[in-house]
Amino acid sequence: MRSAQTPGSPTANPADLIFENGKVYTVDARLPWAEAVAVRHGKIVFVGSAKGARDWQGPQTRIVDLKGRMMMPGLGDVHNHHTRGGQLDLFELSFQASISFDEILARVKARASQTPAGEWICGGIWSSELIARLGTVEAKAALDAVSLGHPVMLRDDSLHNRWVNSKALELMDVTAATPDPELGHIVRDRSSGAPVGLLLEKASALAEQAAVKSVNDPLQRDIASTQRAVEILNSYGVTAYQDANTTLPMLQALTGLDRRGELNAWCVGSLPVFNTLTGTELFGEALIARREEFRTTHVRPDFIKLFMDGVPMTRTAAMLEAYKPDETGHAVVSQSFLRLPDVVHWIVRAETMGLGVKVHCAGDAAVRDILDAVEIVRRLRGPDGPMHHIAHASFIDPADISRFRELNVVADLCPAIWFPCAITVANQAVIGERAERYWPNRDLHAAGALMAGGSDWPVIGLPDPWFGLEGMVTRRNPRGGYPGALWAEQAIDLPTAIEIYTRNPTKAMGLGHLTGTIEVGKSADLIVLEKNLFEVGHDRLSHTKVLSTWFEGRLVHGEA
User: Fold this and answer.
1) End of a domain among 164, 188, 212?
2) Which residue, among 342, 394, 398, has the nearest Cα to 370 in the 3D structure?
């Protein structure tokens, strides 16, 4: 067996840790499989045979017997909202998007009965399939009846929209006379003009701002939420991630944890250029100018964030073709939020600071606009600028697929919905047959695009990469409930899917030289699995259990 090791004498610099008797999948084409890994000072110093690893053993070396189990690199998550996910787990009402309208009401009523008077009830995630039902006076009345006087704000499965009750609208000071915010919509009763409690896109920020005002110590809540989020990510084997919309309080929480030695993952930040759906007070140049205050060993504020459009289910994603007629009988045509010159300006501005750009693009027209903008910048500045991310590379015109590689643009593939689910059903209702041509993963791979996997947690409830990985391979919903496969021709093989969750996201985040594969010199970010992925059926991949997660050679989840 071929081996690789750090130059020098192992006996003079023995390893702190040796993993042996395993099936080590390195995601390194030069040495795909190994038996053992040696670690010193948090870095990998040897990969290869068990005999070769023993050369690194000293009197204080800890030996971990893998018992024939599979080890692989820690996973990357190129797109999540970690603080929101931890907050949902610790402080809020959490439920699956699969539950019904009546079940949501029952959950709210149970929570309200246990919540101190006057406190907000926040949480989610409700299904996009419910949008039409929630946009009514009757739905608001039903929510009012079970909320027992509490203000209520519930987020949807895109995180772009909110459902609130009358008490929340009162505290938000939103009435029939309140104008729609820019790039947002307050859904109203047709006869009276009164808000019915459904807030779309930037109108959601009105509710978020009102809710956060009720929190006594937002920073401590964010610190606790961030720490819990990383614990959850580690439990699924994730050791590197990119927060997709990183506000000042998030940066403060991340940096505080890392300076105390309590951040057990690499985190790349994406600083919002404009006010966000969460209503952050600091954004754009003012936030970007402060980024170096928060840079630490593991916190890398190296991207800016743009929103190019909304989401298809509310007809706010920018699509090349018109949507199906809405309830008024009009065929809606949605365009990108930003003009091309403005996008070019921000890409150039980012590149002059050495930053990448992560852009939310849900529709194929938005994707094309961003590719056009990047092409202009590449022609002006040359082809070697930072990698930029299109999130979510889901609806793409076939003519644009090859441009990802040509322009060095990352296909940020998330959330884990490349199979039939509530979102695909909601898409079908507004764009018809085009909804079937969703997530062209195989075509992107064949074109040489760098594809990086993410979760968009808490959009999908939990940041479960194994759920998404199975969906990429089978194009079926691992949980069932939605029969058939979605565009089955776009399925990819298992080794490619593993790369999309390990090497590729770390490369996309600018961490590829540090982690993402099991190679000498890289951080000892490693996971041990209960089953060998190559020995289980593809329809069992979502059942993968991570027995232990190691970050920089430290056990951060499970048992050795």
Assistant:
1) 212
2) 342
Look at residues 194, 212, 230 and tell me which one is the last residue of a structural domain.
212
Whether 144 and 253 share a structural domain: no
For residue 378, give the nearest of 397, 401, 357, 399 by alpha carbon: 357
Q: What span, in angstroms and rounded, lies between the C-alpha atoms of 343 and 332?
A: 24
Evaluated on CA atoms 385, 387, 390, 396, the torsion sign reads positive
Same domain? 284 vs 208: no
Q: What is the DSSP string of 46-65?
A: EEE-HHHHHTT--TT-EEEE
What CA–CA distance (Å, rounded) separates 419 from 190? 36
Number of other CB atoms surrounding residue 119 within 10 Å: 13
Kindly report the pTM of this predicted structure.
0.91
The H or E element that residue 123 is part of is: strand 121-126
State the pLDDT confidence band at 481, using cuts at 50, 70 and 90.
confident
356/414 same-domain check: yes
Are 121 and 109 within 8 A, CB to CB? no
pLDDT 10s digits, 179-232: 999 888 999 998 899 999 999 988 998 999 899 888 888 889 999 999 999 999
Q: Find the CATH number of the domain harbouring 484.
A: 3.20.20.140
- Residue 483 scores a pLDDT above 90: no
Residue 554 pLDDT > 80, yes or no?
A: yes
Q: Over the stretch 382-422, which tens digit does the pLDDT of each residue have?
A: 999 999 999 999 999 999 999 999 999 999 998 778 888 88
Q: For residues 420 and 521, which has the higher predicted lDDT (pLDDT)?
A: 521
Q: Is residue 79 part of a domain?
A: no
| Containing structural domain, residue 106 | 99-212
57 vs 553: CA distance, rounded Å: 15
CA–CA dist 433, 444 (Å, integer): 21
Residue 389: strand pairing partners: 358, 410
